[in-house]
Amino acid sequence: MTSRREKRALGRTTQRISNADRVAERERVRRSKRQLQLEAREAAYLPKNGEAGELALRTYRRLKVEPHRATSEVLAGAYPFLAESGLGSEGVLIGQDAWSGAGFVYDPWELYRIGVLTNPNVMLAGVVGRGKSTLAKSIATRSIAFGRSCYVPGDPKGEWSVVSRMVGGQVIALGDGSDARLNPLDEGPRPQYLSNHDGTSAHLSDVAWQQLIRQRRRELLRSISESALGHSMAAVELTALFAALDEAVRSNTVATLPQVVAAMFDPLGDVVGSSCAQLVDDGRDVAHALSRLVGGDLGGLFDGPSTVHFDAHLPMVSVDLSRIQGSDAKIGLVMTCASSWMEAALQDPAGGQRWVIYDEAWRVLKQPALLSHMQSQWKLSRALGIANLMVIHRLSDLDAVGERDSESRNLALGLLADCSTKIIYAQESGEDAKTGASLGLSSTEIDQLSSLVRGEGLWRVGERSFVVRHVCTPEELALFDTNQRMVP
Q1: Which residue, 66, 153, 203, 396, shows the most beta carbons closer than 10 Å to its own?
Q2: E strand intervals along 143-277
Q3: Would you say residue 252 has pLDDT above 70?
Q4: How far is 285 from 237, CA to CA, in rounded Å?
């Protein structure tokens, strides 16, 4: 058994050993610190405030930035690398990007050149009173400064007349009280050459020019005849119609619609496959349908030689149809004839780049037989150097064209597909989802439609989307105003 004295001795021995260990550990730590200090003194570190001397490019004082608070709109200008780059700076200034605050510039020809767009055609949709007509007029008039001209083949409300006169253009008013008359079978100005799809040019010979005129006249007569009949024409009806057209051209210096109708009722000779009697019988319904353009409710508009002439060198030409009253079918027929009358000028590559604006296009979309005429112009837009702008109220206007999977409905959807730029202004309640489904919009894009205010639109340019605020000068707003009769 260990005595008390032995225990105290053992405790003193243990205490001495612990103290010695602690002293040794502290000494080891001190030696380690001294070693690190020696290594730091010997190492070549960059001075805290930079190298000394004139070439240090540093101040001897620390940089101190005061706290600053600003709106996102101001910061977007201070830090431009955080903003959307937009579509470049070449083209017409439309307004302001609603998200970045930057200016929004648009030019379909420039964007097609650099590969952003596959075609220059534009679709503009929006309910009444949201500013879509103002946008269309703004694009057309501002483009004039860039050397582009504008054609409006049909202005049902006469809104473009004051704009056309203001920019030094021409207004052709048709209807009651007007002496103006258009011959849709006019040859039109002859171009010196035609542009091929590969960008090369080909000289236009006399034979090729006559073939071009003949094809354009045939296509026009087929379109307006089918529209008046309400159905597609049979092969024998087309034979009778084209035979009468050829006879009217051969027998007259200037072929007109009354001469075509007269040749259908009283053909002068047989054609291959049909006798005179058969031509009369086969073309009887078509002749009566065309007589509407000669002596019916459209009499006086297209029943003789033209009393006005189309000047392709003017900055803007519009056809005022506000004096023509009647159904949408009647308006559609007149717009088709006027469009064909202007089409001769579009064939000339020397005419430059041009806008062709179909305002109130929903009237034409309701005439399925006339859609093929528009589709051919949409398909040839790149070769002709034109950009078609179709203005409608809503995408559901396409539902009135025809039954699902019908030819006419597919033609209308084809026009929509051939528009690489789609501009959507505010839609009626419940139309957002339908619009998104028709255009293939994302859920984020669809959500933006309900928040659009007057003058704002969702621009779908190729695969990119922007919310753009259209900005006009006071002079432009006064010129483009469509509410004059609503505001005292």
Answers
A1: 153
A2: 149-155, 170-175, 193-195, 201-203
A3: yes
A4: 8
